[in-house]
Amino acid sequence: MGRSRLITGRTAKVSDDAKPKRRHKYGAKRTEVDGIWFDSKAEAKRYVELCILVKAGLITNLDLQPAFMLQESFLQGGKRTRSIKYIADFQYIQDGKEVVEDVKGKETEGFKLKRRLFLKRYPDLELRIVHC
């Protein structure tokens, strides 16, 4: 079970894992920064950059791994269909606007579908994809 860590007034999940156990299917290497495990070196690097922006006062309310409901679960023919959620890498406020950010090395078909659902359901949030 993970524990929480406060990041600029918000809570982030911190893994209790001592070491990464297996390699990611796209070759990403889990990386630890400030006691927080990230799914890739690129995501960890972006976290460090965002922390610098927080300290400079350019962004606020940095949140890690924010979850967004894209479709609620439902019953069909007596069978429950699971909900669809999108978990981004970061969320913060910049110039009064809420920004949701995801670091991607490769955009999978699953991500492309979730991006379309996210943009439809959350038109007031800005979705930024950082390619590495």
Summarize the structure.
The chain is of the alpha+beta class.
**Structural class by sheet pairing and helices:** alpha+beta
Q: What series of H and E elements makes up the topology?
A: EEEEHEEEEEEEHE
- Give the averaged pLDDT, no decimals: 86
Instruction: Tell me the name of the CATH class.
Output: Alpha Beta
Unreliable residue runs: 1-5
Query: Any idea what the CATH architecture is?
Result: 3-Layer(aba) Sandwich
Q: Helix count? A: 2
| Gap between N and C termini | 30 Å
Helical coverage, percent range: 10-25%
What is the strand arrangement across the widest sheet?
Answer: 5-10-11-12
Number of DSSP E strands: 12
* Biggest sheet details: 4 strands, mixed
Percentage beta strand: 35-45%
**Computed Rg:** 16 Å
Number of domain modules: 1
Shape: globular
CATH topology (level 3) name = Trna Endonuclease, Chain: A, domain 1
List keywords for this structure.
globular, 2 helices, 4-stranded mixed beta sheet, alpha+beta, 132 residues, single chain, two-stranded antiparallel sheet, Trna Endonuclease, Chain: A, domain 1
